[in-house]
Design goal:
single chain; 42% helix; two-stranded antiparallel sheet; alpha+beta; Macrophage Migration Inhibitory Factor
């Protein structure tokens, strides 16, 4: 029973989650011989104010780009 955790900064649409679920479970089946039905996929959508790259908080970087 593989548990795959996908962490992203920001939100994903339901369509994006469906497509990711399909592709990830297919890859697990093809590469690791794990049945698609046995894969659990967890989406962690992290608010960009709680995510940094190096010293820069992503929401701060977003605000600078909008100016």
């Amino acid at each position: 029973m593989p548990i795959i955790n996908i962490k992203v900064a920001g939100k994903l649409t339901m369509e994006q989650k469906r497509e990711l679920s399909k592709r990830v479970s297919t890859a697990m089946e093809e590469v690791c011989s794990k049945p698609k039905e046995s894969c659990y996929i967890v989406f962690d959508e992290i608010d960009r104010a709680n995510f940094a790259k190096g010293e820069v908080i992503l929401s701060d970087a977003d605000a600078k780009l909008q100016k």
